[in-house]
UniProtKB/TrEMBL annotation:
One of its GO terms (cellular component) is ATP-binding cassette (ABC) transporter complex, substrate-binding subunit-containing. Keywords: ATP-binding, Cell membrane, Membrane, Nucleotide-binding, Translocase, Transport. Residues 3-233 form the ABC transporter domain. It comes from the Archaea. Pfam families: ABC_tran. PROSITE patterns: ABC_TRANSPORTER_1, ABC_TRANSPORTER_2. This is Trehalose/maltose import ATP-binding protein MalK. SMART domains: AAA (SM00382). Coiled coil: none annotated. It comes from Sulfuracidifex tepidarius. One of its GO terms (molecular function) is ABC-type ferric iron transporter activity.
Length: 316
């Protein structure tokens, strides 16, 4: 199914949370909404789900206006940040209740639960309670509960935020595999750019209720729309510099991998070097500005280095 968000506005306590949001999401697409805390991304997801109504604008699913359609009638699966499992119910019941409420018979519901629980590796947990599970297991149960209804649209709100780093890596892989296997149009909200870049077919960057840029991970990384996007995307982010250092007007953005050390006639002093495992991230002072570059060896603080910039992004 396709989804369109058309001219959506939302105001809370006289504060504009969403400002004329327009999105076109294609059938089967994995679409990520990326932004800092308070940017409006969760509010947008809740409006799409039907849990809140926009003050203005429309939500269209397969070209049908569902703005005023109750959440329970949209056939949407949603995974919340806290998983929202029923603590007093066994895992089997957590999966069964959404199917029962939709009017499905127990026999068909049981078949679906058995299938999705085996696919997500939780078939041995069905008689346990949520409090008896690890964070990773609870996250898989939450995914299963959202998918067991075979939804038209799959929404995820920071679903990995409660997992530790190794669990997040494996969970990202699982989510991507499931999304591709079922070809479910999916919208994933996160503040973590690593998740966004790893999962998204396209990424929408939102801040203060406004869309800053929409594009593929490669487009946003290589060609950020403005300095705010440039400083938010990439690890490390772009170094933002006065373009006059290379004879350009305005400001420029430079990726660390595009700074070639020990070549060229530009010079700076090393502030420090951070060990990253396979290389060092070197911070270089250019007087009042700072440039980041990668190096295979540690460079001592205060050492003067020469360098050249092989590629940059110019901002007007």
């Amino acid at each position: 199914m396709s989804l369109e968000v058309r001219e959506v506005n939302k105001v809370y306590n006289r504060k504009l949370i969403l400002d004329r949001i327009n999105l076109q999401i294609e059938k089967g697409e994995f679409f990520v909404v990326l932004g800092p805390s308070g940017s409006g991304k969760t509010t947008l997801l809740r409006i799409i789900a039907g849990l809140e109504k926009p003050d203005n604008g429309k939500i269209l699913i397969d070209n049908t206006d569902v703005t005023n359609l109750p959440a329970g009638k949209r056939n949407i699966g949603m995974v919340f940040q806290n998983y929202a499992l029923y603590p007093s119910k066994r895992i089997w019941d957590n999966l069964f209740l959404p199917l029962e409420s939709s009017g499905m018979g127990k026999e068909e519901a049981t078949k679906r639960i058995e299938f999705i629980s085996k696919r997500l590796g939780i078939d041995g947990l069905l008689q346990r309670f949520p409090g008896e599970l690890s964070g990773g297991q609870q996250q898989r149960v939450a995914l299963a509960r959202a998918l067991v209804k075979t939804p038209r649209l799959f929404l995820m709100d920071e679903p990995l935020s409660n997992l530790d780093a190794p669990q997040r890596v494996s969970a990202r892989k699982l989510i991507k595999e499931i999304q591709e296997e079922y070809s479910i149009t999916s919208i994933y909200v996160t503040h973590d750019q690593t998740e966004a870049m790893a999962l998204g077919d396209r990424i929408c960057i939102i801040d203060e209720g406004k869309i800053l840029q929409i594009g593929t991970p490669e487009e946003i990384y290589d060609d950020p729309a403005d300095e705010k996007v440039a400083s938010f995307i990439g690890n490390p982010p772009m170094s933002l510099l006065d373009g006059s250092i290379i004879g350009e007007k305005g400001n420029i953005g430079v990726r660390a991998e595009d700074v070639i050390l020990e070549e060229g006639d530009m010079k700076g002093k090393v502030i420090n070097s951070e060990f990253l495992g396979d290389r060092y991230l070197v911070h270089i002072s250019l007087g009042s500005e700072e440039l980041m570059a990668f190096s295979k060896v540690r460079l001592r603080e205060g050492v003067e280095v020469s360098f050249r910039i092989s590629k940059f992004k110019q901002f007007r």
